[in-house]
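Bug #77: duplicate submission created two jobs. Keeping one. Sequence:
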Amino acid sequence: MRTISFRSLAGSLLTLTLLGSTVAYATVSAPTTPDDQSGRVQAGLTLTSLPSNVNPSLAMARQITGTPTALNHYLGKLTVCDPARKAKYATTPIPCYFGDTRATKTAVLFGDSSTFAWTTALNDQLKKGHIRLALFEFSGCPSPDVTSTPTYFSRSWRSCNTWHKALAKATAKLHPFVVMSSSAAYETSSADTAWIQGYVKAFNDLAPSRTTTRILLGTSPWFVQPVPACIAAHVTSLANCTLHYTSGSQYGLALTRDVTIANLAGATLVPTVGWLCYQNACPVVIDNSMVYRDGDHIFESYATHIGRLVASELAKAGLH
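Kept job's structure:
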């Protein structure tokens, strides 16, 4: 493992039961193709005022992440297997299962807290495809196998290092046909050797067989402040909350880094930027849905809304 220092921010009515809570989804059909989604993102960029039927409501969005207790309740069973909340699972990692939990065909998704949104996006489609998804998530622990330091992770850096060392043995028991990962947009450069090598190492350790498909879900946007707070301050001027990025910005560099990692790790890159942004601009409301629950986490309700599209793109990469 290499050493690195970094920081991170932390058409029908659908009712989504999200582990610990229930969220009513707005009356908007789900996107079916990348082009369809692109049009919806563009429409989101033209919004000036917060829709009255935005989902979740602004009050709910702020309540969900208002306290650690509220967030834990919202995340539900995920808190049972996350070493950030159950320290013993850093030494002996266990997954939370989604999709068809009785299936023998297993896919693994590992990484930091960014992974949960994609888990909820895939859940229903994997049930239909009779695939079990084993999620190994460690909130606040970088997805690549780099040596965490106490500089920015004072509480969990030792556990994060331990978790990475133990993860290969835990995943090997499941004999996954696909190993996937995602990551938050940590502050590293696109040419950060330690980060890139750490991700290659993680894929090599968790998917040592040539027959195991490797998939890297592209990095999602990183906002300077929690998005619900920004929306609350700009209810009639949502454009003030839109993220604009350049190739040299933190998010732009992360997108470039994704390409390098996928190439060196022998993984298929499934970019997520087109689901969230258009021409270097990322709106905070799409399809009457609040997209982010803080500065760098996609609302699980929104991820579920675009779930068929996510599952379709991942199926092309080998998740089928």
